[in-house]
Amino acid sequence: DTEVTQTPKHLVMGMTNKKSLKCEQHMGHRAMYWYKQKAKKPPELMFVYSYEKLSINESVPSRFSPECPNSSLLNLHLHALQPEDSALYLCASSQTRGADYNEQFFGPGTRLTVL
Amino acid sequence: EDQVTQSPEALRLQEGESSSLNCSYTVSGLRGLFWYRQDPGKGPEFLFTLYSAGEEKEKERLKATLTKKESFLHITAPKPEDSATYLCAVQGNQGGKLIFGQGTELSVKP
User: Fold this and answer.
1) For testing the chain B interface, which of A24, A30, A104 should be mutated: the one with the most B CBs within 10 Å?
2) How far apart are CA B38 and CA A71, in angstroms?
3) A42/B102 CB distance under 8 A
4) Cβ contact (<8 Å) for A42 and B87?
5) Chain B, nearest residue to A5 by Cα
6) Which of A18, B11, B83, B86 has the most CB atoms around it within 10 Å of its CB?
7) What is the 8-class DSSP label of residue A2?
8) A94/B96 touch (CB, cutoff 8 Å), yes or no
9) Beta bridge partners of B89
């Protein structure tokens, strides 16, 4: 199984809402990632979790709050977002051994629209 | 500063017309160079990993090569279904962080 799943596929939310994006993988990968992607741009790293611990936070605003409940699951909690946060949010996972991280496998993404 | 530059930004080919995409990089301590394919509105699909200069990987009509400064993705006799954006990314010493290029948007016409 080389699949990363993400829910929901689409999400529309107001600026005062609280919502969560979910990601799941069953490949035994111990590194998981959140990316944000705008149209015609490459993915932009937000967070990296390694062995369920946050290892990289790319200075993301606090209205985005990541959570890694276990080695298979990754959540992104959203609160008080701005219209400019509308984008495709991608989850990825990879094997990791010490300082080595193998190729990342991406999920299909969640298309987020903030009104 | 780690950096990846892809060229051209866009490439239009006729079906069967072979060509190459370029990915130039500067990175401190290359741990891997990755090629992905991305269709509109979907997540990137992993294609290849290259680790050291001289390495080559092939998959169907695609062949990826690596030197100390750049990588090429060769597309032989492309078909319309090869139309997509191709992303190149490098991983250096920053624990799993990928540095992406801007991508090459490939269009193959029948």
Assistant:
1) A104
2) 26
3) yes
4) yes
5) B43
6) B86
7) -
8) yes
9) B34, B100
Instruction: Walk along chain B (110 residues) in steps of 10 and give the mean pLDDT of each run.
Output: 95 98 94 96 96 96 97 98 98 86 98
The predicted pLDDT at position A1 comes to 59
Query: Which of A 16-35 lie inside 8 A of B, CB atoms?
Result: 31, 33
Are β-strands B56-59 and B62-66 bridged in parallel, bridged antiparallel, or unpaired? antiparallel
CB-based burial, A83-97: b 16+ in 10 Å, e otherwise: eebbbbbbbbbbebe
pLDDT at A2 over 70: no
Write out pLDDT tens, residues A15-31: 889 999 999 999 999 99
Asked whether the beta carbons of residue A43 and residue B41 sit closer than 8 angstroms, the reply is no
